[in-house]
């Protein structure tokens, strides 16, 4: 018996944005435990370092780089880190912002703030995907864009965040079609209601202690990452749904 | 639906502790109770064709049983690892046990390694809400070693151990189930031929069972956690079911796995079945209801199990409870090698 490292297989590499807390952290831990090397990013250096430290037990390589994915230089640094690890199998665009809190109606939405929401939630995932494509093509990898039920809900005051996610859904579907010949898959995933800091920030006065923690989505990630990217590309999944299907 | 609605008294002695072959009878000699709105009839399984008619569509599960119980060695010493579901990429959901007959939970931690039939497996995470189940990442395929060193999963109520062939149904041609889809167990090839002669049509699905779920512990039955299982409903099966529905012919599922697969392929917009392939944890309760199944051939299910809720969904709680009282009175045998039950929601 050798050590726990998956030394006889090629190592797999994932890049996760918004990885220090909530869903991003749960997914990072799941992948580290599976033997993935990781490039992790989040805006707050301290919580990101804490996450990276907690994952050290899994004996994988972790590059934790704090920064804002809306910043082009930071995106370059993330892809450079993946290049140093030799490959990229999975890009998870998870970082996002609710925008101003409490969330304003669209009639009153400060346009500069709305522009920031779209820059982080919609444009940054496209920009990061563009940079990651050479690596993803080489590994026939998968891009996962995190969406939300707000993308289809039309809920009052969720127009900024929900609009940015609806646009991201269409971008995911379009990218999937455009990238099909390359073997790179693109999916969008609505993780469902979970007990996270973001959920609490959306409604500061509501008690969300009944909601499941982000690890409720682990069976979905386990399933998704076991599929051939071509079999799932272009789909929008709900991680807490009763079933997940591949494309016929 | 409240948990108390799934409670009934099943005497402990009403359990099959050996396969019928060991009791000196053929698989299709086991007892069969036929329950329908007009009452209950007691017969033997080989008489099944008498209770079906030309045009009935019988849907069976092709999944074959794996030798999924493996010896393992880890931080706690020798143990058993029952593999439940293959997620791909050498990741499995599995149930660590002290031994085949002694269940966990074991005090294990994520990141710890096991040696499973000679293959290294790392504990990744517990299944959310079901801490006795772990995701295990193997560093190579476990399937070859499983065939060499695995045993069929067996529980403490069975006397003796039996070869894998005892755990295969006549329909089994696609390995993947942790536990035998046991409703198909009493079918023999001569019986299948007799059904075809009768004009009964056959179609199939694949659904690979995971390890058995435990008793419902929550008050609200719908909140009982289920984990997903791989399934395939082919285009030809979807078409056969849709034709039967449009012509008013009965669709009879052989096993709860078939109900789950068919209902997972239901397309509300099209008001019919479509081809589907993926993982499903669809939980069929009276609240959910059923769209395609008129009847079910299944074993007898234990008190307070989620399967009972599915039976209620198909045939109504009154009919099912009445049938179970009858089965207890008549001394029917429970469990995977026990007696069989044809439940028809309509004549």
**CATH 4th-level superfamily of the largest domain in chain B:** QueA-like
Tell me which CATH architecture of the largest domain in chain B applies here: 3-Layer(aba) Sandwich
* Tally of domains of chain B: 2
> Helical segment tally of chain A?
9
Strand order of the largest sheet of chain B: 2-1-19-18-14-3-12-13-17
Secondary-structure class of chain A: alpha/beta
Compute the number of helices of chain B: 6
Oligomer class: heterodimer
**Helix percentage range of chain B:** 10-25%
Give a quick account of the main beta sheet of chain A: strands, pairing sense, barrel closure.
Answer: 7 strands, parallel
Distance, first to last CA of chain B: 27 Å
Report the sheet-strand fraction of chain A: 5-15%
Radius of gyration of chain A: 17 Å
- Structural shape of chain B: globular
Here the CATH topology of chain A equals Rossmann fold
Q: Outline of chain A, from the CA principal axes?
A: globular
At CATH level 2, the architecture of chain A is 3-Layer(aba) Sandwich
Name the beta content range of chain B.
25-35%
What is the number of domains of chain A? 1
Total number of beta strands of chain B: 19
Short description:
The complex is a heterodimer of chains A (248) and B (347). With 248 residues, chain A is α/β, with parallel strands linked by helices. Helices cover 44% and strands 14% of the residues of chain A.
């Amino acid at each position: 018996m050798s050590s726990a490292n998956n030394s006889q297989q090629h190592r797999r590499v994932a890049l996760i944005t918004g990885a220090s807390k909530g869903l991003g952290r749960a997914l990072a831990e799941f992948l580290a435990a599976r033997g993935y090397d990781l490039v992790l990013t989040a805006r707050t250096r301290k919580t990101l370092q804490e996450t990276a430290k907690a994952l050290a037990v899994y004996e994988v390589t972790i590059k934790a780089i704090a920064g804002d994915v809306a910043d082009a230089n930071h995106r370059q640094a993330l892809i450079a880190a993946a290049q140093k690890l030799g490959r990229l199998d999975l890009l998870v665009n998870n970082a996002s912002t609710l925008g101003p809190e409490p969330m304003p109606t669209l009639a009153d939405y400060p346009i500069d703030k709305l522009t920031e929401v779209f820059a982080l939630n919609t444009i940054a995932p496209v920009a990061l995907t563009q940079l990651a494509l050479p690596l993803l093509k080489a590994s026939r990898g998968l891009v996962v864009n995190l969406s939300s039920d707000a993308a289809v809900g039309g809920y009052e005051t969720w127009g900024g965040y929900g609009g940015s996610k609806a646009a991201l859904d269409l971008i995911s579907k379009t990218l999937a079609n455009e990238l099909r010949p390359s073997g790179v898959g693109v999916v969008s995933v609505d993780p469902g209601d979970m007990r996270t800091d973001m959920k609490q920030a959306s409604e500061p006065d509501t008690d969300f202690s009944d909601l499941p923690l982000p690890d409720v989505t682990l069976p979905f990630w386990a399933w998704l990452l076991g599929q051939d990217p071509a079999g799932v590309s272009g789909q929008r999944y709900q991680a807490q749904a009763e079933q997940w299907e591949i494309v016929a | 639906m409240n948990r108390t609605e799934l409670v009934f008294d099943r005497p402990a002695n009403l359990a099959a502790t050996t396969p019928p072959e060991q009791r000196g009878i053929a698989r299709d000699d086991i007892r069969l109770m036929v329950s329908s709105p007009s009452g209950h009839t007691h017969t033997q399984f080989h008489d099944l064709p008498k209770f079906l008619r030309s045009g009935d569509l019988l849907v069976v599960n092709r999944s074959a049983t794996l030798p999924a119980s493996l010896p393992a060695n880890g931080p706690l010493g020798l143990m058993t690892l029952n593999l439940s579901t293959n997620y791909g990429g050498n990741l499995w959901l599995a149930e660590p046990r002290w031994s085949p007959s002694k269940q966990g939970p074991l005090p294990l931690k994520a990141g710890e390694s096991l040696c499973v039939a000679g293959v290294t497996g790392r504990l990744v995470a517990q299944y959310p809400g079901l801490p006795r189940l772990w995701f295990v990442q193997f560093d190579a395929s476990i399937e070859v070693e499983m065939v060499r060193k695995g045993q069929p999963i067996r529980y403490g109520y069975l006397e003796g151990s039996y070869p894998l062939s005892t755990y295969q149904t006549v329909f089994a041609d696609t390995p993947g189930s942790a536990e035998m889809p046991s409703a198909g167990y009493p079918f023999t090839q001569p019986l299948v031929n007799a059904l075809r002669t009768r004009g009964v049509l056959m179609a199939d699905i694949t659904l690979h069972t995971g390890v058995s779920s435990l008793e419902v512990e929550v008050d609200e039955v719908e909140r009982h956690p289920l984990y997903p299982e791989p399934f395939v409903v082919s285009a030809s099966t979807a078409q056969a079911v849709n034709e039967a529905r449009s012509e008013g012919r009965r669709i009879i599922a052989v096993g709860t796995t078939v109900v789950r697969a068919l209902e997972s392929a239901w397309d509300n917009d099209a008001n019919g079945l479509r081809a589907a392939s993926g993982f499903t944890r669809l939980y069929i309760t009276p609240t959910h209801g059923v769209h395609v199944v008129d009847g079910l051939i299944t074993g007898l299910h234990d008190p307070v199990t989620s399967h009972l809720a599915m039976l209620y969904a198909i045939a109504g709680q009154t009919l099912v409870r009445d049938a179970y009282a009858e089965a207890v009175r008549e001394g029917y045998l429970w469990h995977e090698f026990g007696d069989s039950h044809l439940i028809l929601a309509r004549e």
